[in-house]
Amino acid sequence: MVLVVFLLAYLIRRQLDYQDRLSSDQLWRQWFHFGSKVEAGHEAGIGAGLALAVLPSLAAGLLVAALDSIGLGFAAYPMECVVLVLLMGAPGWAPVLQAYGDAWRRGNMREAWESIQDQLPPQERQAGFAPGAMHQALSRVFLQSIFQRFFLIGFWYVVGGIGLAVLARGLVALKEQWPQAAARSRFTFLCEVVAWLPVRVLSVTFGIAGDLAGWLRELPVGPSQFSNKLDHILMISANGALTGYALDPDRFFEIHPKEWPDFGHRSLNAIRELLNRSMLVWICGLALLVISGLI
């Protein structure tokens, strides 16, 4: 049933994203208000945030365990599907990417920048003054967002059940929405820890779903492959798996200057198609694990 629940939740979530509906960010933001007040000098503390992330995770896990212990485990599946629909999803990206691609096609980089600046972290917003750097910044944030809102949740749901899926999503929400900005860097570190294994699984999936030869050329060798951060792994892996310099704007302009106006739209489409194919690989892999009896 794990495959059925995840597949159904994924399909529902995709339809909601197409309609730009039902974002869970507001729910997390309201939940975190319980920890918005801290004593002076303790703004960097993470204890209250972790408690607010662990509590719903424990509640979901204990509920499933309780239903299973009394022989009603099947009753947990609808609940898990609803929770996964709430946890997953990245509504709001479609209109942003459409406006960005249209502005790029018209050659209006200022308008393209204005359409995406709210999606970027503060330290990356200066990249908007150079088209290539702006596009790579957007691609990095988009890849990370989709990974954290689909692949990360799906991985921990399959590995550890709905409780771990809730915890993983809670840590991402803490990194982005915790009221005390001083603590967010520490939550970012915890997100890197939770994402260490699934992002490397996704990196391999990029090679399977894309250009395997190109992915192998970009694959880091040595100790750095274990210490690279989430966004760096995603960018390197996607760049290798994509053809036509879809993530290398400078090289693309050098080779195809006449096609430069279409680069923004073509690059984003290539990234989305790679992510869609990668999710299909994950679903097929999950199906094989179910058939073999491992799940």
Task: Please outline the helices and strands.
Blueprint: H1 2-18, H2 25-32, H3 47-69, H4 76-87, H5 93-105, H6 109-116, H7 131-160, H8 162-177, H9 184-209, H10 212-218, H11 224-227, H12 230-241, H13 249-255, H14 263-291
Plain-language structure description:
The protein is mostly helical. It is about 70% helix and about 0% strand. It contains 14 helices and no strands. The chain has helices at about 1-20, 25-30, 45-70, 75-85, 95-105, 110-115, 130-160, 160-175, 185-210, 210-220, 225, 230-240, 250-255, 265-290. The radius of gyration is 20 Å and the shape is globular. The termini are close together. The mean pLDDT is about 85. This is Histidine kinase. InterPro entries: Beta-lactamase_Reg. It comes from Marinobacter suaedae. One of its GO terms (molecular function) is kinase activity. Keywords: Kinase, Membrane, Transferase, Transmembrane, Transmembrane helix.
